[in-house]
Amino acid sequence: MADNVAGEHEQHEHEQSFVESVTEKITETFHKDDSSDSDGEAKKSSPVSDLKDKVYRLFGRERPVHKVLGGGKAADIFLWKDKKVSAGVLGFATVIWVLFELVEYHLLTLVCHTLILALAVLFLWSNAASFINKSAPKFPEVALPEDIVLGVASAIRTEINTGLAILRNIASGKDLKKFLAVIAGLWVLSILGSCWNFLTLLYTSFVLLHTVPYLYDRYEDKVDAYAEKAEAEIKKQYAVFNVKVLSKIPVGTLKKKFA
Residues 107-132: what's their mean pLDDT? Predict the structure, then answer.
């Protein structure tokens, strides 16, 4: 009797272990299916993310606005990362423009008056310090580092050479589209120059640098959407202009005559 009970108990344990092993195999199978489904969904979702990455950006921009502006302190000022510094720079430029344009100060007069005021204050301070038992002011030695001057001169030289190379490429007659764009830009600048003097034009450009990049960085998605529509319309109008006008200009014949 005891042997029969022990045999039934062992058989029950064997059946229970068999059921547990089958259950584990089924669970593992479902886990593998779930993981393969999730991998498939990830693979399917990757083209969607790729499409999101290929969103239209103004002028084909691939980097953030901060990087386009140089990524340094100048970019921080133009994008108002530090509002006090940006406001100070813009305020200083406004004061200079008011002095030269509205008050009609001349550059040499302003420099001389500023030096007179600064030297008078420092001279009186140095002599009055002995009467009031205070130490005289210490003036630091100011000198332009040679490496900075050479670096600035080298950068200016590189930019000038780049501009001259671009002008040479345009004048060679290889790209009619770029030629027309440059002519139109120079014509617009000549009109602006006839309306305002150089200082006002420079100040206006400075103000635009402090406002346009900041507003674009804040509302770039909306601006890019409108810019995409505008670019499509411009390309359509240019295609019509190219067919009706530019294609009829005998550029190849003129090149053969001058060759």
Answer: 87
